[in-house]
Design brief:
This protein is mainly α and 227 residues long. It has two domains: 8-111, Rna Polymerase Sigma Factor, Chain: A (Orthogonal Bundle), CATH 1.10.1740; 116-219, Winged helix-like DNA-binding domain superfamily/Winged helix DNA-binding domain (Arc Repressor Mutant, subunit A). It is 61% helix and 0% strand. The chain is built from ten helices and no strands. The chain is elongated. The termini are far apart.
């Protein structure tokens, strides 16, 4: 009696990996889907920022190094061995050093930008939450200038034709409201976390050109545009 092949979704990781290594793209997609979240969490906990490229490199590395697998461990264990290699490679790249010995080197040893990454990510999430309570025009000014890296003139265009003084006024008032919103969030949650990102934003307000002044709020036009 002819055996009926099992559906890929019911196959184990090792069987799927064997099929993927043989060229079955669907099997590779299923493995990626099963383990993507776990590998992404691994990189985020170590680096504190988006690591989707490292996740993809990890899965591609699995196929390239498949000769080392040889069923000596579970696919998941093998996958995280490749992820560890990718992590070390990325840390060496960021530190511009190939001689790092991770038996004695910590993430904190590599500099404040890496050791603070996770805390800054959490702070940014808090800022984004508080930003939702800021008046929309001010909120958009902050979003365009600080999160999309637009220049002040570009923000003015995006907001309907405002000059730099008006953009700066929107940003300053928006940051004041944002600071109050963050303070309220921290008060409700019983914390007083770092505001380093917000302080950097406040320190980098666009400068006014000589002879310009900040307009009062009532002098800033309410720009509406039909789409």
């Amino acid at each position: 009696m002819m055996s009926v092949p099992r559906e890929p979704t019911t196959q184990g990781d090792e069987e799927l990996f064997e099929r993927w290594a043989a060229g079955d793209a669907r099997a590779g997609h299923l493995l990626f889907k099963r383990h993507f979240d776990a590998v992404l969490r691994f990189f985020r906990r170590q680096l504190g920022d988006d690591a989707s490229d490292l996740v993809q490199n990890t899965f591609l590395g699995c196929v390239k190094a498949r000769g080392r697998f040889a069923q000596r461990a579970s696919f998941r264990t093998y996958l995280f061995a490749i992820a560890r290699f990718q992590l070390y490679k990325e840390l060496r790249r960021r530190a511009s050093r190939q001689d790092l010995d991770f038996r004695v080197t910590s993430v904190a040893d590599l500099g404040p930008s890496l050791s603070r990454a996770l805390g800054e990510r959490q702070e940014l999430a808090q800022l984004v939450e508080a930003l939702g309570q800021v008046a929309l025009e001010q909120q958009l000014a902050i979003y365009f200038y600080y999160l999309e890296d637009m220049t002040a003139p570009e923000v003015g265009v995006a907001l309907g034709g405002l000059g730099v003084p008006a953009v700066r006024s929107r940003l300053r008032r928006g940051l004041e409201a944002l600071r109050r919103g963050v303070a309220e969030l921290q008060k409700r949650r019983g914390g007083d976390g770092s505001l380093a990102t917000l302080e950097r934003w406040e320190a980098s307000l666009p400068a006014l050109a000589a002879g310009e002044r900040e307009p009062a709020e009532h002098e800033i036009p309410a720009v509406e545009q039909e789409l």
